[in-house]
Design a protein that fits this description.
Number of helices: 24
Distance between the termini: 53 Å
Number of strands: 7
Structural class: alpha+beta
Radius of gyration: 38 Å
Largest sheet: 5 strands, mixed
Strand order of the largest sheet: 2-4-5-7-6
Strand content: 5-15%
Shape: elongated
Length: about 650
């Protein structure tokens, strides 16, 4: 076994071992709710869940619960064997008819339609689904429309399939049914892939997966969406992402026994390894695809498995093996095969294999069928493809040197004409590009002038705000000169410091290069120098600043500046009495999504008695500012006072 398949196997084994011991009980006949609905109420079970449902459903006395279990048994058996799934569906239809339960009879018809379409009985599937429409409640219609969309997809009518996907999407949104919406996105992703619009396919696939993951249940449709998203990534040649989604899908498929999805993924892995030229891995994936398709007894999957193998052999250069595999694919499909998309792929690859083997007659015949089928799906340029093949066939059959030379001359003339046309177009493009660049340069100059003008106005605003704050500070200083009461004087002086700390912010903004952010380290240096100087303690207390340069937005900088102002002021007023010398440590650091501000001194610490120094306004202000920052404050009073504040990094520059 190759290294990758060993990796997938080991991942699955570990996943299984990690989950198997915690599997919940699906059926408890003694409970008020005897059945935990699979892939709705829970996904905590392993591959044996179908055995549990089969053993227990007939023991349940409540009809609706029994029908729910039997319908789940029938529907999810289609992921392993279509014939067995149909047997359980028929039981459900019989029981619901006897009980005259119209809604559940309609739900079993939806399941029957899902199985019939996978048996390639598309007309029967459509008829059954149309009959179910009038029976089931509105909440079941998104799932019903999804199955009708699959019928049209199998027929190659991708436009009608998209219409039904959009109907499911609309109903899902109206009913607030997240799973229905997720499935609709998944189906659109698959249809975009078939139409060759792979970037849109990735977009819808990822949207679907997001909804599934929010829903929280790992089910069949989530598994399928992983596969579809991988297909779109593969088509975009993003092989790593494609591999990632395929491997995830395989783990889920192995856990729950989703043979249909496993066959799908292994088919795509054949293509992935073929692109990577890892032909041994591609062949192993092909064998797995065939194995699961045969377990399903699903000719559609068997046909696609051999198609993938044939494409791989074609790429490898084994024309005979490619022809053999592709013929087997077409034989399995039969003339009544419903899906023109994959059948056209088979004939296209067969034509290429014949052409490589110099069998141009059979190549021509295969490409003719391919063109016809592709017209059914895409209404593509069949005439152009047909004429190209016809030219290749005629050239291969004619041995006349004169005819070959004439053909070469025509090609040269065509090439010359094309060169002249391309040259003229390039000149026009250059002229247009020059004009566009000139216009852009003019626009850029206008924008630069406007930006410079706005920058000047913003700086002028910050300058005026700073001047106004300085006026307020001066007024407070004049007022303080007339006050005798020491407490009032202290309050005014502190207010003056607070105003000054805000003014310094605006000063840095109009003097600096950036108008929306403040560099905090330089700001702290200037602020601490100002506070120490205003208290006349330059020789008594030193500030130790421990931080790197850090930019914050204006609002956060002002709040932090006020906090630091209060904490340093408190340390200067109370931590160093009797001219005691000391150090105040100041730090602001970023840790992951948090900022941590710390102001710590080696003073006498906070008093142990209940007496409060000052008015308490500063402490109250700090509390308010910390709450404004959505932060948390930690106070430590051992060996001095340490205040540590941490807050979210939501407004960092």
């Amino acid at each position: 076994m190759s290294a990758l398949f060993q990796k997938i196997g080991y991942t699955f084994i570990l996943s299984f071992l990690g989950l198997s011991f915690g599997y919940g009980q699906l059926v408890d006949l003694n409970s008020d709710h005897p059945y935990k609905k699979v892939f709705v109420d829970t996904d905590n079970f392993g591959a044996s869940y179908l055995d549990t449902l089969e053993q227990e459903y007939h023991k349940v006395k409540t009809d609706s619960v029994q029908f729910s279990m039997l319908n789940d048994l029938a529907y999810y058996w289609h992921t392993r064997n279509l014939n067995t799934a149909m047997e359980f569906t028929k039981k459900g239809l019989e029981l619901t008819s006897l009980k005259n339960d119209l809604a559940w009879h309609g739900r079993f018809q939806i399941t029957q339609g899902a199985i019939l379409l996978r048996m390639e009985k598309l007309d029967s599937a459509q008829n059954v689904l149309e009959l179910a429409k009038a029976k089931v409640p509105k909440s079941d219609l998104p799932f019903l429309n999804t199955q009708l969309g699959y019928v049209y997809e199998r027929r190659g009518q991708l436009d009608k399939a998209a219409d039904y996907a959009l109907k499911s999407l609309d109903l899902g949104e109206k009913l607030n049914d997240k799973k229905a919406t997720a499935i609709a996105y998944s189906d659109l992703s698959n249809l975009f892939w078939k139409q060759g619009k792979f970037e849109s396919g990735v977009k819808y696939g990822l949207s679907s997966l997001k909804l599934f993951e929010a829903w929280g249940i790992t089910d069949l449709d989530y598994d399928f969406t992983l596969y579809v998203t991988g297909n779109n990534y593969l088509a975009l040649e993003d092989y790593e992402n494609a591999r990632k989604y395929y491997e995830h899908s395989i783990i889920i498929g192995e856990r729950y026994g989703f043979y249909n999805n496993l066959s799908d993924v292994y088919i795509s892995l054949v293509d992935l390894y073929t692109y990577l030229r890892e032909f041994e891995n591609a062949m192993e994936a092909g064998r797995n695809a065939v194995k699961y398709a045969e377990l399903l007894e699903n000719n559609f999957m068997i046909m696609r498995s051999w198609l993938a193998i044939g494409k791989m052999q074609n790429k490898k250069g084994n024309c005979a093996e490619a022809i053999e595999g592709l013929k087997k694919s077409i034989t399995v499909a039969t003339e009544d095969f419903g899906d023109a998309y994959f059948l056209s792929e088979a004939y296209n690859e067969l034509g290429r294999a014949y052409a490589k083997n110099n069998d141009y007659k059979n190549a021509y015949s295969s490409f003719s069928v391919y063109d016809s089928l592709k017209n059914e799906v895409f209404t593509a340029e069949a005439d152009l493809r047909f004429s190209q093949l016809r030219t290749e066939f005629d050239v291969a059959q004619k041995e006349s040197t004169i005819v070959l030379q004439q053909t070469q001359i025509k090609k040269q003339q065509t090439r010359q004409h094309l060169i002249i046309i391309i040259t003229i177009l390039l000149l026009l493009l250059l002229l247009l590009a020059y004009k566009a660049i000139s216009n852009n340069i003019k626009k850029n100059k206008l924008l630069q002038n406007k930006n410079a003008e706005k920058e000047f106005l913003l700086k002028e605003i910050h300058h005026r705000v700073k001047n106004n704050l300085e006026i307020v500070s001066s007024l407070l200083s004049l007022q303080a000169a007339r006050i005798v009461d020491p407490k009032i004087l202290d309050a005014i002086e502190q207010s003056q410091q607070r105003v000054h700390s805000m003014g310094m912010i605006h000063q840095k903004l109009y003097l600096g290069e950036k108008l929306a952010t403040v560099e905090m380290k330089d700001y702290f240096i200037n602020l601490s120098d100002y506070i120490i100087h205003s208290y006349g303690k330059n020789d008594q207390v030193a500030i130790n600043l421990e931080m790197d340069e850090l930019e914050l937005d204006v609002d956060m900088a002002i709040s932090i500046g006020l906090i630091v102002n209060e904490l340093i002021t408190n340390s200067l007023k109370y931590a160093f009495p009797d001219d005691r010398k000391g150090i105040i440590h100041l730090a602001l650091k970023k840790k992951a999504d948090l900022f941590v501000l710390q102001v710590k001194d080696n003073g006498i610490g906070m008093p142990t008695d209940t007496q409060v120094n000052g008015t308490g306004f500063g402490t109250h202000l700090v509390d308010l500012l910390v709450k404004q920052l959505d932060g948390k404050m930690i106070l430590v009073t051992n060996q001095g006072t340490s205040v540590r504040i941490q807050f979210q990094n939501t407004k960092a520059a």
